[in-house]
Amino acid sequence: MASLRTSGPRLWAMRPLFQQAVDVRRSSSKAAKPDFTSILSRPTWSVRSLLPPEPTPPPQTTSPPPTTTTTAATTTTTTTTTPDTTITPSHLHHLLRLSALPLPSSPHDENVMIHTLQSHLHFVRAVQAVDTRGVAPLRSIRDETAAADADQTIGLDQLRYELELERPFGRSGRPRRTKQAVTAAATATATATAHDDEPWDVLQTAPRRAGNYFVVKSRQGT
């Protein structure tokens, strides 16, 4: 009991220090909260990195420019490209012929086309450089979840009614629909068509039909 009595005043005297430590901890936790506005205001990546750098103009000199003679030679724009992204005028003309497109009418149009194709090719190379190991390829733009696959799958439950209309026929047991089943299917189809928004029978002019299908006779050997 004596130790508790003597420790009581000591704990009361240390209470301000404990409260100060709690306040410091609370202030540090508030300061550690990230400020998303400041983070997003300083982007660390740009889509321009997927495009080739713009051609740098040659440095200007104070010396007078040399006299040149105007000729009909084609001027080309020098761009910083790698060998696998360089497109020559012959490549451009070959691609235009394959696409049945007209050739450029002037050297300026040719340079613009080459620059555009090199930009596209540089972007494609950047996309191809992405590591896709372990990523399943996209088969189509649709819902590829298990629930969507199960909803689009045609199983035995969907075909049970059609299979019940068939009977084995012949020695090999080939399935064949009975006449009663065909008549019942045609009646069900007509009844369902009568309740549609457009009550008309699309197979009305068919000379011969079986259920939802019209029968066409073909010659042997064709």
What sequence of helices (H) and strands (E) makes up the elements? HHHHHHHEEHEE
Biggest sheet: strand arrangement: 1-2
Instruction: Bin the strand percentage.
Output: 5-15%
Number of strands: 4
- Poorly predicted sequence stretches spanning 5 or more consecutive residues: 1-7, 66-80
Distance between the termini: 113 Å
Question: What's the total helix number?
Answer: 8
What's the overall geometry?
flat
Domain Glutamyl-tRNA amidotransferase complex subunit Gta3: 82-138
Protein name: Glutamyl-tRNA amidotransferase complex subunit Gta3 domain-containing protein
Region (Disordered): 44-88
InterPro entries: GatC, Gta3_dom
At a glance:
The chain is mainly α and 222 residues long. Helices cover 44% and strands 5% of the residues.
Structure description:
The protein has 222 residues and is mainly α. Among the domains are: 82-126; 177-217. The protein is 44% helix and 5% strand. The chain has eight helices and four strands. The chain has helices spanning 2-13, 15-31, 36-40, 89-98, 107-128, 146-152, 156-164, 179-194; strands at residues 166-169, 174-177, 209-210, 213-214. The strands form two sheets. It has a two-stranded antiparallel sheet. The chain is flat. The chain starts with a helix and ends in an 8-residue tail after the last strand. This is Glutamyl-tRNA amidotransferase complex subunit Gta3 domain-containing protein. Residues 44-88 are annotated as: Disordered. Residues 68-88 have a biased composition (Low complexity).
